[in-house]
């Protein structure tokens, strides 16, 4: 039995421990990171706190993603796009010493994220129920350049997969993932331009805050798409970090409503990520196969910061039993699944 959080409160007690652990349909807890108490010398706390806002958009032609992250001793800003027809992808990133110039909001329900320098400008604005993603990167892909202005419609009643879990006594993870946000706007990449329609394009947000183990590993799977009957379907699955006895982040999001799953296993071949993956749960509700069509590999090696991501893009097929007991068939749902190792 997983614990559902239904009351507002603070994330942390005064001594830096979590006030609660569990999952929620909305982000009820105030992210009071000023009460992190990992080191006895307070000025060192900042170096262990990880914060990021990761936006992604699925269009009929491509996957587009933009991130602003502050890892404590360095910031990381990156943008990438994946072409569904050819499988080609390109990515550009910047490492920002000490995260200078990076602005990230306290909570996922308020404030803006921003970073601008001579190379790139990224801004994520929350304006009522609209989330506006603006990206300008003239040198992207050897000067082809990329520019985007995308508006995601994020209605208050739309449920999101939010978890609060301990990693150790004073390490924790607070994360909100919002799937299936109707997207409008435009993406210009080189000489091509794609106009986004909310009838065919959906965005998502991965909003994370926490204090992690220096050496970390996780799996994540996600998708936002449309069913043939016009309903939206989101997928969010994860494993590999923290104490998930109170809650996992596993859920199907059908037309903006969470259908919560318990433990889900990722079954894949780590020596050949292009082989099919399978996803099964411990309650026999989830039966999904995932066939990749391209692989994004992102590596970082900056001494104390190291990262290796194998993010596979492909198609999901199978079924899930909803909370009410009905079976939902899933077919040809484009999404991704990944393996991530980090030292940070």
User: Biggest sheet, in brief?
Assistant: 13 strands, antiparallel
What kind of assembly state do the chains in view correspond to? single chain
**What is the terminal-to-terminal distance?**
32 Å
Strand content: over 45%
- Averaging pLDDT over every residue, what do you get? 95
- Low-confidence runs: none
**Count of spatially separate domains:** 1
Rg over CA atoms, rounded to whole Å, is: 19 Å
Q: What is the helix fraction of residues, given as a range?
A: under 10%
The counted number of beta strands is: 24
Order of helices and strands: EEEEEEEEEEHEEEEEEEEEEEEEE
The class by helix and strand makeup works out as mainly beta
- What is the overall shape? globular
Number of helices: 1
Question: How would you describe this structure to a colleague?
Answer:
A hairpin with a 4-residue loop joins strand 21 (277-281) and strand 22. The chain has one domain. The two termini are 32 Å apart. The chain is built from 1 helix and 24 strands. The chain is mostly beta strands and 344 residues long. Helices cover 1% and strands 58% of the residues.
Characteristic key phrases:
344 residues; mainly beta; 13-stranded antiparallel sheet; nine-stranded antiparallel sheet; 24 strands
């Amino acid at each position: 039995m997983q614990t559902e959080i239904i009351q507002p409160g603070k994330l942390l007690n005064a001594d830096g421990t979590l006030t609660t652990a569990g999952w929620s349909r909305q982000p009820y807890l105030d992210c009071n990171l000023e009460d992190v108490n990992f080191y006895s010398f307070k000025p060192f706390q900042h170096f262990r706190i990880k914060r990021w806002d990761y936006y992604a958009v699925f269009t009929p032609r491509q996957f587009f993603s933009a991130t602003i992250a502050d890892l404590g001793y360095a910031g990381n800003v990156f943008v990438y796009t994946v072409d569904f027809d050819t499988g080609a992808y390109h990515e550009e990133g910047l490492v920002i010493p000490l995260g200078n110039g990076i602005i990230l909001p306290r909570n996922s329900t308020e404030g803006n994220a921003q970073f601008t320098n001579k190379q790139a400008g990224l801004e994520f604005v929350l304006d009522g129920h609209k989330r506006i993603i603006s990206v300008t990167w003239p040198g992207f892909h050897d000067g082809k350049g990329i520019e985007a202005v995308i508006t995601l419609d994020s209605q208050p009643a739309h449920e999101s997969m939010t978890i609060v879990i301990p990693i150790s006594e004073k390490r924790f993870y607070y994360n909100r993932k919002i799937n299936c946000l109707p997207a409008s706007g435009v993406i210009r990449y080189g000489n091509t331009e794609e106009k986004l329609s909310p009838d065919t394009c959906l965005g998502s947000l991965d909003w994370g805050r926490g204090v992690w183990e220096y050496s970390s590993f996780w799996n994540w799977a996600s998708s936002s798409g449309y069913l043939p009957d016009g309903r939206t379907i989101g997928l969010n699955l994860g494993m590999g970090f923290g104490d998930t006895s109170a809650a996992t982040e596993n859920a199907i999001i059908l037309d903006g409503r969470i259908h919560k799953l318990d433990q889900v296993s990722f079954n894949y071949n780590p020596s050949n990520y292009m082989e099919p993956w399978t996803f099964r749960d411990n309650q026999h509700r989830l039966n999904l196969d995932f066939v990749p069509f391209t692989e994004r590999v992102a590596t970082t090696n900056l001494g104390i910061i190291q990262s290796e991501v194998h993010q596979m893009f492909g198609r999901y097929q199978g079924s899930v039993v909803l909370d009410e007991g009905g079976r939902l068939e899933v077919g040809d749902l484009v999404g991704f699944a990944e393996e991530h190792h980090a030292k940070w």
